[in-house]
Amino acid sequence: MNTADFPCAATTPAGALAGIKVLDLSRVLAGPWCTQMLADLGADVVKVERPGVGDDTRHWGPPFLQDVDGNDTDQASYFTACNRNKRSITIDMAHPEGQALLRRMAQQADVLVENFKVGGLQQYGLDVDSLQALNPRLIYCSITGFGQDGPYAERAGYDLMVQALCGLMSITGHADAQPGGGPLRVGVAVIDIFTGLYASNAILAALQARHTTGLGQHIDMALLDVGMATLANQAAGFLATGQAPGRGGNIHPSLAPYQDFRSSDGNVLLAIGNDGQFARFCAAIGQPQWAQDARFASNTARVRHRAALLELLVPVMQTRTTAEWVALLEDKAVPCGPINTIAQAFDDPQVQARGLRINLPRYAGDGIAQVAGVANPMRLSATPVRYRSAPPALGQHTDEVLQEWGLDAAQRAQLRATGAIGA
């Protein structure tokens, strides 16, 4: 599917969350990732930003967006990763009239998402108790580093800190004894992203519960909780045995062979997950007896005799190019593939066929013609994701949104004159 087919198709059915109003007080990544999911599904997400400054990630560059002449602007590309399909308004929540305006908007909202420190919004009258007293149907989602209670509740939390604290870095990277060994962070802020996904799931559950109860609820999301949860099989293994796993590079602790190898011209991955795949692999390379060897006949045996298996495999894998390995194995249902750069990934024919790059036109009048992004992977047949708008310029929709939410031109002018809303 061509990327040009995606954006703003007028004939596309309304999204699954059409009619849901979301007040987005979050910034950086976890909260905005959550609200982008809701926006992609059709919710009207109003992103509230600080006048003149905006979300921190607007300034996290380089890299920066380029204008129509190919010159860098002052707008970082980071912001665009998690803010499409939203409308940006600028309100000063430190201003009493800005606080009153946000309380008024919260009375009309279905969902509010915030990622301030615990108790940080209480001074503004924007905490969960204050707003749910005004709107009992409000679903209020708080995202923090460590949750609303516990000894670390007052601490600020960042993805890197949580990757370290939850143990993720202890299982990421090469072992200490190997070249380049030592703990590593994952190359993307995965705890933030997973927190956004868990938060959006929790909000959907709360919306469904509201159909029955008529009431909203408070959602307490913590990066640390998510970090522990996403340890998945590694946490399960520790809980079962009491033995903490270590770093093994690209080797899978429970599968073999399931790792990268040197090919004759680079690197190639084998991801063999069962005994049938291993037998087909052995036949393809002219070594069918390996699948009958007691050391390698089952996955458990291969894991236990990994060193002996690798002693045989490493020289064999260097006899073909990466492309030759892929060509040899792909019709034999043996998972095998290259290790792409991001540029190579976007050039991959399957990535292109799935339309995973999207180009969204920008109408902010700031010299940026369009913003490229990555498609949402959720494919709903009846209520598909729609790409209505590019990530907004700071305050681009202030007048539009406030008019829709009940403020006339005179009221907006008065708020602007006092500094409660941005110019």
UniProtKB/TrEMBL annotation:
Concerning Pfam families, the annotation shows: CoA_transf_3
What keywords would UniProt list here? Transferase
Q: Name one GO molecular function term.
A: transferase activity
Tagged with keyword Transport: no
| InterPro entries noted in UniProt | CoA-transferase_III_domain, CoA-Trfase_fam_III, CoA-Trfase_III_dom3_sf, CoA-Trfase_III_dom_1_sf
By its UniProt entry, which PANTHER family does this protein fall under? SUCCINATE--HYDROXYMETHYLGLUTARATE COA-TRANSFERASE (PTHR48207:SF3)
Protein known as = CaiB/BaiF CoA transferase family protein
Organism from which the protein derives: Giesbergeria sinuosa
